[in-house]
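JOB MANIFEST
job_type = single_chain_structure
chain_count = 1
residues = 497
[input]
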Amino acid sequence: MRSSLVILSLWIFISIEATTQDVCPEPPKIENAQISRDSVKSNYSNGDEIDYSCNNGYVSLRKITYMCRNKKWSQHRSAECTLKRCELPADIPNGHYTIINGNSFVVGSTIKYTCEDGYQMMNRIFTRTCRPGGWDNQLPVCEEVSCAADVPSDKFLKMEGLPDYGDLIRHGHRLQFSCTEQGYALKGPKEITCQSNGEWDEKFPHCEEITCKLNETKDFGDKVERISDHVGLIKPGHQIKLSCVEQGMIIRDKRPIICQENGEWNIPFPKCEEAKCVANITNMIIDRRPNPGVIEQKPGETIKVSCHQEFVLEGKKDITCQEDGEWSSQFPSCVATTCEPPPTLSHLNADTKLFLDSKKTKYSLEEKVEYACFQTYIMEGDPFVICKQGTWREQFKCIPPCLASVEKMDKRNIELKKGGRERMYCPHMDHITFVCQKGTYKKGNSVQFRQQCLYAHCLASVEEMDKRNMQLWKGGSTRMYCPHMDLIFVCKWGTYK
């Protein structure tokens, strides 16, 4: 009996040992996969197989199988689970897509649709993502961009460029604006453009009545007076006058201030400044001070003016500064009582008619010296220069002749009727006649062959310059003939423009 128990125990031990030797360890873990439900067991023996199924969103080209051999797992087929691919995304008319997440069309990748220029997205959602079941969301739609023609209610505004009835206002289309009523100006752009986003590049303009603003005057302490008693808005053509509020302050610029057609004033608003009288003094004695330079006097102050020797005073010797910053009378001047020897007037094409006394160094006021023009020049006026206020003033001008050069005549195939091919000076107002050179004939549209010499010039007289308190920039207060050139004038000392 005892031996039987021993034999039974030995058999059980041998059976358990044999079974333990054929069992494989826990199955391997495969990335993105799990053991198929049919292959799940509590333990696996030699020869057992297990199949793996890919997780949702993953696929395998072949079935993944492992087998238990000699207590180890070995892969039956080489395979792996990779992300599932979606079909190629569909294109849309007038748009395109770009990948914004991922680098291929697999689960998790996202694409974004964009419309071409001139088209706009009609869908609120314009992205699609690759899901295990395919692409999500619907294909978006791109429609042609158009801008709204919000016709303004402004009755003076004219709008041009609208398309024919029913046509869309497409990207790039332009509208032009103007005002139909005189006295109104366009406020805003003259032209607007429909953009690719369906919006106008600028706001619609409007017509606004043209007026000139007065808010600038508050900075200067000015008082505004309206000329002609205009009431309400200041419109083009209206005129205002400014005066200073504070006592002792003045406005020197007396030019009229007029509202212009563009709503701007014709000149910048002048500023109020302290009232004072200014004069630039040369060759004068002021209150016994010789040549003090620039003097400034306050209103109510009086100065005494006198001159150096060989000068006489023209004007009042006592002059007072007034409340308006102006002198009580025209500022006096010191005038020389004699003149230096008369100048050579070669720049005027003239010279003294007689030899002058070289020992004579001073000439009295109103003394005259006679001049003659150069040969072929014609004199107009009295042939004298006169000593006035210490300077010589000529009373004439020498008009140059016209030149007929051989070179110019040859270019035109002409010659003198009398004299042939020779250089010719023709005095002012004289006539000269040409003929065609031998072998040539007169063109039908040619000017007359008999021509008169006429010389144009401009005269700047001392009298006219004195009336305007101005003088030549170079030359001072001298008589000036200006042939075909510009003259530059400046204000006399003590005056301003």
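[summary]
The chain has three helices and 47 strands.
Confidence is low (pLDDT under 50) at residues 1-19.
exit_status = 0
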